[in-house]
User: Fold these one by one.
Assistant:
Number 1:
Amino acid sequence: MAAALPTLRYVVASGLMWAPLFGAGCAHTPPRGAPTDAVVPADSRRALVPSLRDSLAALAPTVRQEEAQRAAACAFEVAQRLEQEYAPIGPPLFHNLLINLGLKKRGLCCHWTEDMLAPLQALRLQTLDLHWGVARAGTLREHSSVVVTAKGQAFEEGIVLDAWRHSGRLYWAFVAVDRYPWKKGVTNRPP
């Protein structure tokens, strides 16, 4: 036990020293006064499905209401499942640190995006397109998320679906007004 104590101190000290670098991916602190979404208990999240459905349906008159409903329900179900699967500890940046130290296996923003995109793609949506959105690509503050647009619509007019931002509590906003500078990225597994 005595030998384990210095190792634990080393891991904690190293983690604190390198935290800004290891945890920086997906980093963001909202500016003062920026709008934030409400943190809603898991059992109340289903009540938000109609709101997301309506936002998706409003992307264009060509979006079918039933597709918007299926996509919204799927997004909330997957976010809740991933929250249980990843069991995030603390805020997302702390969880990122644990992953980068090898203490947790999954839960970076690219994992949330990958694991949310696959079930949404399985819906075979006809009036909605799914995209891998990336903000600040190639930097320590890189962040990725799913972006939904109406079929053929410009990426910049889409809606971000971000389950990482609040550790499994699904956040959504229009790309144009979200605080991240989203760009269209890849639609498959990240390198």
Number 2:
Amino acid sequence: MNAPSGTHDSGHACCHSAAKAAPAKTDTHCAHHTAHGSTMRGAHAAHAGHAHGSGWRAGASDTAPERSEVGAGAGTAAASRTHLLPQNTVLAAASVTVHCLTGCAIGEFIGLAIGVSLGLEIHLTITLAVALSFVSGFALTLLPMLRRGFGLADAFRTVWLGEVISISVMELVMNLVDYHMGGMRGVSLVSAQYWQAFAAAMVAGYLAAWPVNRWMLGRNMKKCH
């Protein structure tokens, strides 16, 4: 009778030990799965972060050339404007000076012709030539503007300052050259001295007025005709 009891006690003890060992094994297994899950979540988060960072860098890399191209295009346009502006001013000044010289030459020729033909005093001949140069110069500028619909007062206010400066410079130089070459002291209009002095005066007047007109165009003081 005692043997069975011992056997039963031993079996009970073994079962009890197994019962206690089972939770420990279960806890170890859960801990392993928990650690594995944490590791997987961390790896997934790191992979997602890496992919996001790579995508951001790729986006930035794709966008950077576009920004560079836009900046380069703007710089090229600005450079073009910088290089074209002086050239346009030079050409516009040349055109304006030819226009001014035409008006001055008409008045200058008529004034000198009258003075030489009538044998007027030099100062009277110069005064007449300068006055007629202003009249013909302004007429050559204002008449096209009147045809385009400008009123006389508005057209005059628009151009008077530039015309006065340009014609004054041109007339000063032209009359100085003509006087020193003896053109306005010629005996008649058919003398070579008269025409040589007049031609030289026109060239000198153009060369003197061109830089002045360019300067005024750059400061919007002179209008292109």
Number 3:
Amino acid sequence: MRPRTIWPTERSSSVNTNAKLFWILFGFFVISDIVYVAWSILVHNAGYVTQLAGVQAPGSQPGSPVEWAGTLEIALSALMSAFIAFYLGRSHRSVGAELPEDRLDANIDDGDAEQGFFSPWSWWPIMLAFGGALLFMGIAIGVWIAFIGAAVTAVSLVGWVYEYYRGNFAR
């Protein structure tokens, strides 16, 4: 049997691959949330589902049979996945262009556009991360540490922005 030939004019579909992946992720989170709620009800009531009707099962704990923190977290993850999938699908349709990863005849080299300029030998990002860590640690532990973190963050940000205006790398 001959393999099917993929012609350059064929497209994978009208919705791009990224949106499809996020819709699949949305479905996974919805199914996970349903299973999580059912599991927490069964574990809470030791197998009895009578507490939902207002009757307390013997040996069960008082309170809600649903564990709300995990339920809400998984539901919000599903909602965020749906938002991202909707946005990607809508923007793909409005632009009309097709990404290289959506074409069946694309090569790896088709998607390697310029991503920006990054300083290969710069120490400023490490200092900026250290200053940000000090800043947030100061908010959690003591305000005096936050002042030091804010100063280190400001100096690091200015140093990173103006790195190519002075010294060996000046233009």
